[in-house]
Structures are given as structure tokens and as C-alpha cells.
Amino acid sequence: MANVSVYNIEGKEVGSIELNDAVFGVEVNEHLVHMAVVQQLANKRQGTQKAKTRAEVRGGGRKPWKQKGTGHARQGSTRSPQWTGGGVVFAPTPRSYSFKMNRQEKALAILSALSSRVEEKKIIVLDELNLTEIKTKKMVSVLENLKVSKALVVLGEKNENVTLSARNISSVRTALTNTINVYDILKYDTLVLTKDAVAKIEEVYA
Description:
- This protein is of the alpha/beta class.
- It folds into two domains: 2-46 and 98-205, Ribosomal protein L4/L1 (Ribosomal Protein L4, Chain: A, 3-Layer(aba) Sandwich); 50-93, no CATH class.
- It contains seven helices and six strands; from the N terminus they run E-E-H-H-H-E-H-E-H-E-H-E-H.
- It has helices spanning 21-24, 30-44, 103-119, 136-145, 160-166, 182-187, 195-205; strands at 2-7, 13-19, 123-126, 151-155, 172-176, 190-194.
- A six-stranded mixed sheet has the order 2-1-3-6-4-5, with helices on both faces.
- Helix 2 (30-44) crosses helix 3 and helix 4 packs across helix 5.
- The longest helix has 17 residues, at 103-119.
- It is elongated, with a radius of gyration of 27 Å.
- The two termini are 13 Å apart.
- Residues 44-86 are annotated as: Disordered.
- Belongs to the universal ribosomal protein uL4 family.
């Protein structure tokens, strides 16, 4: 099992914790990690792009000139794709880009992302993260104490003071253990977990 130091919000080491290898020590499956990221980005797409085909463009009902004898190439409509103002050949239409992943694949992708953070030593465990008031400056000082700039902060339970204090920091995102996803884990440089968040993640995925 990986042994990781535990820090307080002052940035001082106050102990250590053993991470469960079934969650934080699995073999990284890059294919599933990639698939999970692509799925999340695809599910975000609006899919509202639209262009008109030759059947939908207004006009072009009359044959522009007779079939033979003009010296021109034969044409049946001024709304054919080769004409200015004509339709688009394979015009995009509104559609959903989303696709599904199996539950087991999703779980393994998250475990792979968590394990990769442990391998790269980009994980910090806090004994607790409690702020007495909603203050962005206090959250910034906590991150500075931990020598962290771009971080995903995962909490074990809802904490409005922490969530609202971090909301205005563009390089920081807060999440609960049941809302973590592969894209966010990989997007941010450091994964900051509270001890109770580690326990909850291990309880769900171990």
C-alpha cells in the first residue's frame, strides 16, 4: 500500500495514511481513461449545428438553361452544391454526440486516474479542511501553504464555506466524492483530498 503524508491547512505534516491499493494502486488503463474523457466532453456538446442541403435551400426550382446547345455544362438547378448560394453536400444536422460507457469501465477509469495521481506524486491528503467563514483570501492562503496552484479539492461531505471560498479561484475546483470524474482529476495539476474523502472513495470503490 502507498503511504502518503497527511497535512493540516497550515501546510505542516501531521501524520501519514496508507492508501488502499485496490483504489489508489491499480494498473493504469490508458484506453479507458481516454474513453472516459472523450465521453464527458462529447456529452457536453450541444449538437445544434445545422446547414441546409440542396433540398432545403430556397429557390432553384427552374432549370437555369436548356440541356443541350448552350456550350455550358448541363445544370438542373441553381441550388446544386457547386453553385454560389447552393446547398451543402453533407450538411450537418442537430444530433446528440453522447455515448455510453459500462459502469465497470467508468469505475476502472476513475481508479486509473486516481492511481496515476499517486504514481506521479500529485496527491495531497489533508487531515481536515474547515473554514470559519466564506473568505476567498483564506482559501488562497491554504493553497499557498500546501504549495498548490491548480488543484481539484475533493471533500468528504458538503462544506459551503470551502465551496464558496474556492468559487472565485479560477484554477481551483471543489467536488464531493460522489461527483469526481476522470476529466477533472486529470485536468488539475494536484489532487487534494481530505481524510474523510479518502475513506469514502475507498468505501465505494474498494
